[in-house]
Write a structure and sequence with these properties.
Radius of gyration of chain A: 13 Å
Number of helices of chain B: 0
Largest sheet of chain A: 6 strands, mixed
Strand content of chain B: over 45%
Radius of gyration of chain B: 13 Å
Number of strands of chain B: 11
Order of helices and strands of chain B: EEEEEEEEEEE
Order of helices and strands of chain A: EEEEEEEEEEE
Shape of chain A: globular
Oligomer: heterodimer
Amino acid sequence: RKEVEQDPGPFNVPEGATVAFNCTYSNSASQSFFWYRQDCRKEPKLLMSVYSSGNEDGRFTAQLNRASQYISLLIRDSKLSDSATYLCVVNIQGAQKLVFGQGTRLTINP
Amino acid sequence: NAGVMQNPRHLVRRRGQEARLRCSPMKGHSHVYWYRQLPEEGLKFMVYLQKENIIDESGMPKERFSAEFPKEGPSILRIQQVVRGDSAAYFCASSLYPSGGTYEQYFGPGTRLTVT
């Protein structure tokens, strides 16, 4: 079983739509959670950290459910520039490395 | 205020040759991480280094791969006797303190290795 699992997509949605990504992690010792964005052939960039209380940054909302070991990302009013691959990332307690999901590819269509 | 720098950006090697990938962390950062991304896959951790020390190499293949982060100069990821399966994007990241999920890891643009 993969440590971090995501639906690989691709997701194709029209501009202005709301899109939701889900992610599950297997290691209960996971302590920190993130969503990264990766554009084609570029490096991953931190989109937002994910907290148990949930957090919002503009059109982006992230949620964490520790009991279910489940993380989500919601993008409202999607823009063409949101087209990218979204990576669910966790950090295991006591380790310095980041564990990445395989990513979900999103294409926003005009 | 330069970010993480990696060179070369693209590297082509024939099977059996050596590949050397360089990473200069952000100014003031002394923690370096190497990740590999195979085509259509997520990034996989390889190794975590501090100056002159390898802290965690649990993701490094047992043979042909080595990494160093000397007191002076960039971190080097070295792949000996490359094979086609080594073709991938290799990303370096750095952080100010041990990351542990608290301090952001900043990624470089990556080196795309192609083995022919």
